[in-house]
Amino acid sequence: MKILIIADDLSGAADCAIGFASAGHRTVVTLEATRTQAHDGADTIAIDTDTRRLAPHDAAARTSAAYAEMSARDQRLYKKIDSTLRGNWAAEVAGLQALAGMAIVAPAFPATGRTVRGGCVYVYGEPLEETATWKLEHAGLPADIATQLESAGLKTDRLDAEALRDEPQTLAVCIGAMAAKGVQALIVDTQSEQSLRALAQATLHSDAPFFWVGSGGLAREIAALNPRNGAAGRKPDVAPFPGGPILILVGSLSAVSERQCAMLRERGGVEELVVPPAVLREGTSHRDWHALREQIGVSLQAGVDLLLRIGRDDAFNPAEGAQLSTALAALVEPHFTKTGGVIATGGETARAMLTAARIGSLQLLAEVEAGVAVGRPLGTASTHCPGVVTKAGAFGTDHALFAAWLTLRNEIEPETEPDVVPH
């Protein structure tokens, strides 16, 4: 069975698709919903529609157009959504429902602390609406799943997979009954990997018209039940990366990213440069732009691994994330060919980086840790082929960036104390 994943940002597309690469599928992430030779032979294709910042109607239209362009026979649709419900996910699901059948909505990702109980998302046990991330971008808006889907025009119902996690056949019967009732979006409570696995088992071989809606959590369980080439339980073999300095771009301002950067500096001895937002807002017209660009080039030319972070100031607005990420990528664009590997934290940062480097697709190879994907460029005319790691900004263990850095340096994780998991 082939899988088409449609995501609204690049790091999300990669962290959802990486489970299929780990299960032996040839897996490609692409920035454009257009079939190219780079996609030939791929079992799993993940598209970044880049719709998170669009108006809901425009996001839904672009998502539906991507499905119409990229869908094929013998292929299942997985609509990847953010595990903390950011973006226009409900409008996008509503647009796809008319084309693909009932939406089975299960955004839980227990490995990263996201669970669903009573139709609501919890982040490490804290209700989503009480988290700093939700308050920063969605203060005063409802966070429960049903309200958002019903506002997009869908008829919803809820099913507790946790209660049926040892009975996937019974779960399948319940899902079929919901579809027969005319439910358009079925919200599934899942608080553990076992319940997600039961949901995957209950739906994987169904002939009914439906599509999955979730984060990387459900996708990993679907992939694990559908391995290729004897890949079950086997770590993928990855050829060494080319060597050379590692460039780390961090566009996320989350506390999780802050801790990850701190560990990378401490354990990796990586040079850090914080780029003021004012420089990125003004671009080439800012007096410090060219000096910063030259400083970056000197460090990379000398073989120094460099951590570039977007700073914060009193004028900061979360809505300007894409603008700042695009400017950061433009700042380093002349120096991409000096790198042996690139790490990008935050979906907008990752997309801006690949666009500036003229990389339209990645073949995913392996997973550094849950949700942190490593790959290589595909379909590029350039002979420069660095390793690429993408990671969403607000999750991962404290050592995620350090582990990604070691991976691109072809080094093995040293023995350390147990990981600190973000709260």
From TrEMBL:
Single GO MF annotation: kinase activity
First and last residue of the signal peptide: none
Top-level division of the source organism's lineage: Bacteria
Four-carbon acid sugar kinase N-terminal domain location: 3-221
Record-annotated Four-carbon acid sugar kinase nucleotide binding domain positions: 247-401
Keywords recorded for this protein, A-Z: ATP-binding, Carbohydrate metabolism, Kinase, Nucleotide-binding, Transferase
Pfam families: NBD_C (PF17042), SBD_N (PF07005)
Family, per entry: Belongs to the four-carbon acid sugar kinase family.
Protein name (Swiss-Prot/TrEMBL): Uncharacterized conserved protein YgbK, DUF1537 family
Organism the protein comes from: Paraburkholderia diazotrophica
